[in-house]
Amino acid sequence: MSVTQSTGAGRPDHQDVRLRPATPQDAEAVTRVFLASRAAAMPYLPRVHSDADTLAWITHVVLPTSTGVWVAEEAGGSGELLGFAVLAGDDELDHLYLRPDALRRGIGSRLLAEARGAAKGALELYVFQRNAAARAFYERHGFTAVAFDDGARNEENEPDVLYRWVPGTAEAPGDR
After folding, report:
1. What is the mean pLDDT of the chain?
2. Distance, CA of 154 to CA of 159 (rounded, Å)
């Protein structure tokens, strides 16, 4: 899994963003955010699936089978999807992606807080080792790297890091 970041620096307009549970009607917008985020934040990743296959996966696997999926959208009239987070099982943040133009507005922090609130204790996630921005985001939010992998466990064959957050762990100022 790879993740894009949102530091929330200044948080000038995060009040104009609404979080809600995802619905099946969000599949196309979630797919657009997923593809745009990965292309912008991790251009080194190989494209292992077509856009159509990615939409099918989001539609038939991610949305219906995940423990929780939350979307962030503009609260104004447009309702445009800005990002999403996915909790798999009781303890794995499987995805957290933001549209490239939605970074640094506090949206990633808010989506992460939703996933933390739904987790049944500690929360784990994988992030690609080369995704320095995502790694810094999670470390600022109290996650600790607990294992490094050579990439054999993911279909991109990209080395990744397992991060873990335990409730009560120190968090970045303003994250609570």
Report:
1. 88
2. 8
- C-alpha separations of 145 from 3, 30, 48, 67, 124 in Å: 15, 27, 26, 24, 10
Cα separation of 174 and 140, whole Å? 11
pLDDT digits (tens, 9 = 90+) for 131-155: 999 999 999 999 999 999 999 999 9
Two tokens at 25?
């009607």
Contact 134, 4 (CB under 8 A): yes
Residues near 54 by beta carbon (within 8 Å), at least 6 away in sequence: 31, 34, 35
